[in-house]
Amino acid sequence: MEELKNALGVDLPDDFISVLKIHNGQKGDLAWLFDSQEFLSTKRIIEEFNTWKNLLEGELQGKISTPDDGVKSDWWNVNWIPFTSDGCGDHYCIDLSPTASGTKGQIITLWYELGEREIVAQSFSSWFDEYIEQLYSGDLVYSKEYNSIVHKDELE
Where do the DSSP E strands lie in the chain? Predict the structure, then answer.
């Protein structure tokens, strides 16, 4: 975890660190867990973070987004830590630098080509708990076609 902390230059929320200590992302070619996205390992978090950092210093410099209230209008911010990836630049991120009306540690969407930045949960714990509830309720199901866990509405 020290390598991750040093690479990102931030302190991550304890609830997120606890999950990483147990799972540390997905292994191999398993079905993607979160909304057709891979759960990133510490190594992959660093890789995605560095990719975004390089983009921010280049083609994304000065580009702004249309965020929910509570999220900065940056296209990407070095305090937005990606922890999932669809392999095409889309992520769920832990926002460690919200605006005054946001919550530090809130979970936001980051879509490479779209400017919307949506708050989907107030913390990693609440985001993860909601995911588990949706699995148990049957709202989330495995799709062989997508080799992923998806919302059942996507299959209808």
Answer: 38-39, 66-67, 80-82, 84-85, 91-95, 106-110, 116-117, 119-121, 140-143, 148-151
Q: Is the pLDDT of residue 32 over 80?
A: no
pLDDT tens digits along 116-127: 999 999 999 999
Round the average pLDDT of the chain to a whole number and report it.
91
CA nearest to 123, candidates 102, 100, 154, 140: 102
Number of CB atoms found within 10 A of residue 1's CB:
11
Burial grade of 38 (CB within 10 A; 0-12, 13-18, 19 or more): buried
Q: Is the pLDDT of residue 25 over 90?
A: no
Q: What pLDDT is attached to residue 119?
A: 98
Q: What are phi and psi of 108, to 5 degrees?
A: -125, 160
Residue 56 token pair: 């921010």
